[in-house]
Specification:
With 210 residues, the protein is an alpha+beta fold. 25% of the residues lie in helices and 48% in strands. The protein contains 2 helices and 11 strands.
């Protein structure tokens, strides 16, 4: 019986040590969660807002499986946060007509493809999609192009792929957050030969997937 007591005492000490370690780990987790909640409550992060204020299509001609196009868009990006600065590191725009993508390009702002947006600020971003590309449209799509020309308006889908970083106080997150922005636009059509636009563009809000 004298040999059993030290063994029981050793097991008891191990259990006590494990219990202390477990309590410390739980306490640290609780403190970390509380710190995150407090920071979240103070910062109150909100997704940025995106919209298209101006849009016009001055060329959209399809002949011999080649599409010639000239689309100009004027986006606005708004940062509604009071304590979060946004760094836009990359933004690429893809444009589609009736489900068929016909162009993609880097969307520029003031000559740069990267910029910082301070708190409660709104910035303009101009996108120009111009050129020609081999595209295969079916018979219905070709008919719809002629219809839209007569109506003076084309339904264009724009999807922007972005990479952003955030700054809180003096801390800048080095990890990029990636997502996309979807804009369904009814774009007025007018040719480069001086034809007036039959319709006015209605400013359109875009859906930000963050």
């Amino acid at each position: 019986m004298a040999e059993v007591q030290p063994r029981n005492r050793g097991r008891s000490c191990c259990c006590c040590l494990f219990g202390v370690i477990w309590k410390v780990v739980v306490a640290l987790i609780v403190l970390i969660v509380l710190a995150i909640l407090i920071i979240f409550f103070i910062v109150q992060p909100r997704s940025f807002k995106f919209s298209v204020k101006e849009a016009k299509l001055t060329e959209f001609n399809y002949t011999n499986n080649t599409l010639r196009y000239n689309l100009m868009l004027n986006f606005t990006a708004h940062n509604p946060n009071k304590k979060l600065t946004i760094y836009y590191d990359k933004m690429e725009g893809h444009v589609s007509y009736e489900g068929t993508r016909f162009t993609s390009t880097n969307v520029m702002t003031m000559g740069f493809n990267s910029f910082r947006q301070d708190t409660k600020k709104t910035n303009r971003i101009n996108g120009v999609f111009s050129g020609q590309r081999v595209v295969v449209f079916d018979h219905d799509q070709i008919s719809n192009i002629e219809r839209d020309k007569k109506d003076g308006v084309f339904h264009i889908d724009v999807k922007l792929y972005y990479s952003v970083r955030f700054k809180v106080w003096d801390f800048v997150d080095e990890d990029d957050f990636k997502g996309n922005i979807k804009c369904g636009l009814d774009v007025p059509f007018g040719s480069n030969n001086g034809t007036k636009f039959m319709n006015a563009f209605e400013p359109t809000k875009c859906h930000v997937n963050f």
